[in-house]
Amino acid sequence: SREIQLAARPTGLPGPETFRLAERELPPPSQGEVLVQIRWLSLDPYMRGRMHEGKSYVEPFRLNEALDGGVIAEVIESADPGFAPGDLALAHGPWGEYAVLKAAGLQKLPRGSRVPPQAFLSVLGMPGMTAWTGLNRIAAAKAGETIVVSSAAGAVGSLAAQLAREKGLRVIGVAGSPEKCAQAVADFGCDACLDHRGKEVKQLSKEIAEAAPHGVDIYFENVGGTTLQAVLPRMNNFGRIALCGAIAWYNDPSAAPPASHVWLPIIQKRLRVEGFIVSDHVAFRGDFLSEVVPLVEAGKILWHETVAEGLDAAPEAFVGLLEGRSRGKQLVRIR
Ligand code: NDP
């Protein structure tokens, strides 16, 4: 099977030297294992953090081994009574074409579902669960409030914005191009969406003030950078920040603003800031699905996919995700 390995730990943006395409012989599945063909691979910003050596909430990728992440896999050969060839499952697998996986780690996808299988990597998967968790369990969003969602045309942001609209909030998106902003308003439930690219903090902050005349009660934070600095002065006293991600700094932590630009407004406005990691909230996956699956099936929630074709396209697609070239969920269709 072909797979993509971590060839070197990057400093800054990953480049061609970060990745290596390699071939590997797979053993037949042992008892309790299945041989799968990977159909869809999920690319996610957190994978950039796993390229560092240091310990974090997920294990770092190992040098000269395949990168791994969320996949939709089709069972080809099964040595487990729970799975038969043809079954589709959500799994954790390599950036590769085939894999031998423990059956216990697979979640079989419902047969005959109206949503396509790869939706379980996006709107009904980890990014969707992240949006739901941040909005409900962290920010406790309520009707009538105003929320700013950054990366509003992204996998997490686009659902956070739509769920907020469903709840009756005023939703201000921030995204990285006129096209993304137009989509955030037309499809993703934003009342307004502001383009952050090439803008000074002051200008973006002024635009947020115009879009949120009563101030901002909740900030769904995905990016850090200029956007964070622009939102902070617009927060209402006792506002809440669901701190989900800070992608602007993943490749360049030194680009962060001085701590005083962040901490002082948080004190002055008595904000409640709570970081969260979606995997701590798995016990609520049933609540998430029972709320979001009917909305998706009824066509009330939209999602967008950017699909890279073939395993070889994964590294470039991953860099594109970090740089903002993807729209909605970045996937790789393996076959
Ligand atoms: P997205 O689909 O939102 O893709 C990433 C987007 O980030 C890009 O498209 C780009 O959008 C934006 N971006 C990149 N650089 C910058 C920058 N310098 N300033 C502002 N925006 C930038 O990814 P996901 O939806 O998968 O993830 C969104 C965030 O949520 C990430 O920070 C991720 O790490 C975090 N996350 C956290 C989880 C948790 O458990 N806490 C779980 C899952 C995700 P644009 O063109 O609009 O700028």
From TrEMBL:
The keyword Oxidoreductase is annotated on this UniProt entry: yes
Chain segments carrying region Disordered: 1-17
Classification via Pfam families: ADH_N_2, ADH_zinc_N
InterPro entries: ADH-like_C, ADH_N_2, ER, GroES-like_sf, MDR_fam, NAD(P)-bd_dom_sf
Keywords, alphabetical: Oxidoreductase
Superkingdom field: Bacteria
UniProt keyword Oxidoreductase, yes or no: yes
Domain Enoyl reductase (ER): 15-332
Full protein name: NADP-dependent oxidoreductase
